[in-house]
Specification:
7 helices, single chain, about 240 residues, Rossmann fold
């Protein structure tokens, strides 16, 4: 009996990799979708490919869309990536690394592919606890998009195939995500979370994504196996 298909948004980061492992553990035939969207951190594409091999995912699409045309983000324009933000300040304001409407765009492509695949499930690794405050990572956004998707597709309106968007990490802290991923056999050394990695793919250790990741490993009582350009901050207060 064939497994049900699910589209999984896979950036190559810690959260999306754990999400893919969860989908696999639930018996889904994972169709991984990665975007080359003009982001400055192209190294994440290499990380996504490593994750696909590690998790033995057989279907992986890398889709090109160039959001540099619009800019508006430190990830798609010549804007500095914030570094060394005090931990208590992370999430208080939406940072310049926010890419306008990124998850709306990504989920729209995932929705289109899911309808073609006759898949009723999409997985996305958004998180609303240890995160930088992006508005498109909140539960109310996901619920609204799911409602829209079931109004906008032939699969739902004519064929009765309702879509579900799964967000298994949305209420987990980073250390809980790390512990869950580890229990599922995820090798986090293959993942890249950094907003501003080196040309060789080493994480900066200073952007908000790195700081949250390092905090998560510290709270989980584990060493971060990721590669960093300088001395890791995981032992700092």
């Amino acid at each position: 009996m064939s497994r049900p298909k699910a589209v999984v948004l896979l950036s190559g980061g810690m959260d999306s990799t754990t999400t893919a492992a969860i989908a696999l553990s639930r018996g889904f035939d994972v169709q991984a979708l990665t975007f080359r969207y003009g982001q400055r951190h192209q190294a994440e594409l290499d990380a996504a490919r490593k994750v696909v091999q590690q998790l033995q995912i057989t279907h992986h699409v890398v889709l090109d869309i160039d959001l540099r045309v619009f800019g508006g983000s430190a990830l798609t324009a010549d804007v500095p990536v914030p570094k060394d933000t005090p931990m208590d300040d992370i999430g208080r304001e939406i940072p310049t690394t926010y890419v306008p409407a990124r998850n709306t765009i990504f989920l729209s492509f995932a929705l289109a592919w899911a309808e073609v695949l006759q898949a009723c499930d999409i997985f996305i690794g958004v998180n609303a606890l240890d995160y930088s405050g992006y508005p498109d990572c909140r539960p109310e956004f996901i619920r609204s998009f799911e409602m829209m998707a079931n109004l906008a597709t032939r699969a739902a309106t004519e064929e009765g195939r309702k879509l579900t968007i799964h967000t298994p990490l949305i209420q987990l802290s980073k250390h809980e995500i790390i512990e869950l991923g580890t229990s599922l056999g995820v090798d986090f050394s293959s993942t890249l979370t950094c907003y501003d990695p080196s040309a060789e793919g080493a994480a900066c250790g200073r952007c908000e994504a790195c700081l949250l990741r390092l905090k998560g490993f510290r709270e989980a009582g584990m060493d971060d196996p990721g590669r960093y350009v300088s001395v890791k901050r995981s032992q700092e207060a």
